[in-house]
Q: What sequence folds into this?
């Protein structure tokens, strides 16, 4: 077989494999990267806050305990593979100044075990960028401290382990013939590490122009990539597990890049963390997410990876009391504890204090799922989103009600979803101000007992004088929130405002308030809510702005 034939067969095999993988879960690493293009998004009317005036502490007992726990782990087996938790053990030991001779000896034994970029059937040794991202952190934090990172160890990092350098900027996945766009986390880890190695060498006397990030175009390309994330939104939004690696790469760039690039990385982090603050309450966070389907069964509501970073950062803030459980997310808590980035003041405030409430809609572009949140003073309704077909790789979640309580699992909170139990069939976008509906029943936690009710409604009370009205059948559920009322009086008002239970399947009238119209079996490209007070709403969420809404304007449905 001649070379031309082999080359043709190789290309054909790749194309065939790409086509065969299309639409299957095993293709998430490839087709999860196919971002909508040329669809620049409206930023919306909600500005991302950036002011920082909080008196952040320089040390945190919580952060110290995380680093200490990691620094106490053995290097014997785990560090030599160079992947997974190993680089973070090395990082933590250097940070805590423990076992320094052993750390240096171990680094000198590490090998380049793979290549950067997504791993898949034709690139089984991918994912090396997971390691070099942390090696880059080690270089910058300790490269000028020869008592911690020995000179020969630093040289080994630079010359052997940090393989990415120069001006190659890859935006497509390895061995896909440039047909498949690389995922955000891999681009940021790979190209961020390349940029930072260049920068280190240039700042330490290297004159070769290929290490000049201005001349070789690396700074411009990274700036453009991050600007797209900030202005067009993240493709891997709320992703498990990838959001943790995206944040890790951004933390490196925010800490060690040029002033211009640091500012851009900070803006992306600020955008991500403001979105988190609006979509969470007291670190309870359970939004729709893109990637991966096997994570759909996770029911913890306080330990997604962005929450883990937030807990590390908050431990340096004036906030005294918050949920510090991190469970399996400790792999990311180390970077949160060590790196200098801190969220904006309003982010910290909004996580815990919803003011007078708000209603916000977040768009994620074409063929995606929106995020919708309705906050009260002591509550947050979080829409679960919608799967847009197998290739969308979107995990829809139940609509959740977060209250001023210590719940950590889905089983401990009010939630609703449907139809059935297959999230691939859900359109759980039925959230409006103080209101939620879905094509399935309302789950009520065991600890809540009915305070009042009739054949159509059950009323539950909370410690904050919030009343939760529930209408629930096998194929349909409504949840509505009210403040400072008698449960018996509320049941009476609901019956008077909504006398026909059949009409509840398509509309709900707040007593002396708004009338909400909806289609719980709406098509997957339409918002479940259809109208308010007889006026149609914009249901085309593929065209929604990044963040649009009314902040601190909780309507009073009394």
A:
């Amino acid at each position: 077989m001649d070379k031309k034939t082999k080359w043709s067969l190789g290309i054909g095999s790749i194309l065939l494999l790409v086509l065969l993988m299309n639409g299957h879960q095993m293709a998430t690493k490839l087709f999860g990267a196919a971002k909508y293009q040329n669809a620049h998004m409206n930023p919306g009317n909600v500005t991302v806050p950036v002011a920082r005036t909080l008196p952040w502490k320089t040390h945190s007992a919580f952060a110290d305990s995380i680093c200490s726990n990691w620094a106490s782990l053995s290097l014997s087996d785990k560090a030599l593979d160079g992947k997974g938790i190993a680089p973070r053990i090395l990082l933590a030991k250097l940070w805590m100044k423990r076992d320094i001779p052993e750390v240096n000896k171990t680094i000198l034994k590490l090998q380049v075990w793979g290549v950067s970029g997504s791993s898949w059937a034709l690139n089984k040794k991918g994912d090396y960028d997971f390691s070099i991202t942390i090696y880059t952190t080690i270089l910058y934090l300790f490269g000028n401290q020869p008592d911690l990172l020995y000179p020969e160890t630093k040289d080994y990092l630079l010359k052997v382990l940090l393989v990415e350098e120069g001006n190659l900027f890859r935006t497509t996945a390895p061995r896909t013939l440039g047909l498949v766009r690389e995922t955000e986390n891999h681009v940021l880890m790979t190209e961020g590490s390349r940029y930072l190695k260049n920068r280190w060498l240039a700042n330490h006397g290297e004159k070769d122009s290929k290490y000049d990030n201005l001349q070789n175009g690396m700074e411009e390309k990274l700036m453009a990539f991050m600007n797209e994330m900030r202005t067009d939104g993240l493709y891997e939004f709320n992703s498990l597990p990838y959001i943790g690696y995206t944040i890790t790469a951004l933390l490196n760039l925010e800490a060690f890049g040029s002033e211009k690039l640091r500012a851009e990385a900070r803006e992306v982090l600020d955008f991500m963390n403001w979105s988190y603050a609006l979509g969470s309450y007291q670190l309870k966070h359970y939004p729709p997410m893109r990637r991966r389907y096997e994570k759909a069964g996770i029911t913890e509501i306080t330990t997604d990876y962005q929450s883990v970073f937030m807990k590390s950062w908050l431990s340096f803030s004036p906030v005294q009391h918050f949920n510090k459980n991190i469970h399996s997310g400790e792999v990311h808590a180390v970077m949160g504890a060590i790196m200098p980035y801190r969220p904006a003041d309003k982010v910290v405030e909004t996580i815990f204090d919803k003011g007078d409430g708000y209603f916000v809609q977040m768009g994620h572009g074409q063929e995606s799922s929106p995020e919708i949140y309705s906050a009260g003073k002591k509550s947050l309704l979080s829409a679960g989103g919608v799967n847009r077909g197998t290739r969308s790789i979107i995990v829809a979640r139940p609509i959740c009600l977060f209250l001023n309580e210590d719940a950590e699992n889905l089983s401990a909170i009010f939630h609703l979803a449907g139809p059935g139990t297959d999230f691939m069939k859900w359109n759980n976008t039925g959230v409006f101000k103080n209101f939620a509906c879905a094509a399935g029943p309302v789950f009520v936690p065991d600890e809540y007992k009915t305070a009042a009710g009739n054949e159509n409604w059950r009323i539950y009370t909370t410690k904050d004088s919030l009343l939760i009205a529930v209408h629930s059948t096998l194929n349909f559920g409504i949840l509505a929130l009210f403040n400072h009322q008698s449960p018996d009086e509320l049941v009476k008002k609901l019956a008077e405002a909504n006398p026909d239970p059949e009409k509840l399947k398509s509309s709900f009238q707040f007593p002396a308030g708004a009338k909400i119209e909806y289609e719980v079996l709406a098509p997957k490209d339409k918002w479940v809510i259809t109208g308010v007070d007889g006026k149609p709403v914009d249901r085309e969420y593929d065209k929604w702005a990044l963040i649009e809404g009314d902040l601190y304007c909780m309507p009073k449905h009394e």
Remarks:
- The radius of gyration is 25 Å.
